[in-house]
Design goal:
This is D-methionine transporter. InterPro entries: ABC_transporter-like_ATP-bd, MetN_ABC_transporter-like, P-loop_NTPase. Keywords: Amino-acid transport, ATP-binding, Cell membrane, Membrane, Nucleotide-binding, Translocase, Transport. The chain is α+β, with helices and mostly antiparallel strands. It folds into two domains: 70 residues, no CATH class; 31 residues, no CATH class. The chain is built from three helices and four strands. The protein has a four-stranded antiparallel sheet with strand order 2-1-3-4, with helices on one face. A hairpin with a 2-residue loop joins strand 3 and strand 4. The chain is globular and about 45 Å long. The structure holds adenosine-5'-triphosphate and magnesium ion. Adenosine-5'-triphosphate (ATP) binds next to strand 2 and helix 1.
């Protein structure tokens, strides 16, 4: 179970403020496959990076299986990340495998799901 609660992310530089993610709430239930689609720059990658706190949200909370990631210590977060599979956009896919085989290869899901 994955829950994003009221997630916003603002990048601020000297000359500009970019709201990359604006007040997103998503509940993904166990065994549910959830797609996030949007134009280039819509904030998809930022939201996914927030999902394991590679990026900290400016506002909001993330729960993985009831565990609130945003309140964990560094050590607890490292341990929690062992259970979160992530495939980055531009590399790491095995080109001669199918999408399903890539997911099976790269994500630490229980065998019962396959
Ligand atoms: N580290 C950063 N600093 C400043 N702005 C950023 C940063 N990362 C992303 N952005 C900006 O946040 C917005 C969302 O970017 P993001 O990469 O999440 O979009 P995306 O939906 O994944 O796009 P794409 O489909 O091209 O991969 C964009 O305007 C982007 O320029
Ligand atoms: Mg992206």
């Amino acid at each position: 179970m994955i829950r994003f609660e009221n997630i916003s992310k603002v990048y601020q530089s000297k000359n500009s403020i970019i709201e990359a993610v604006s007040n997103v709430t998503i509940h993904v239930k166990e065994r549910e496959i959830y797609g996030i689609i949007g134009f280039s720059g819509a904030g998809k990658s930022t939201l996914l990076r927030i999902g394991n706190l590679l990026e900290k949200p400016s506002v909001g909370k993330i729960y993985m299986n009831q565990q609130p990631l945003t309140t964990l210590s560094k050590k607890e977060l490292r341990e929690a990340r062992h259970k979160i599979g992530m495939i980055f956009q531009s590399f790491n896919l095995v080109s001669n495998k199918t999408v399903w085989d890539n997911v099976r290869f790269l994500c630490p899901l229980p065998q019962s799901l396959f």
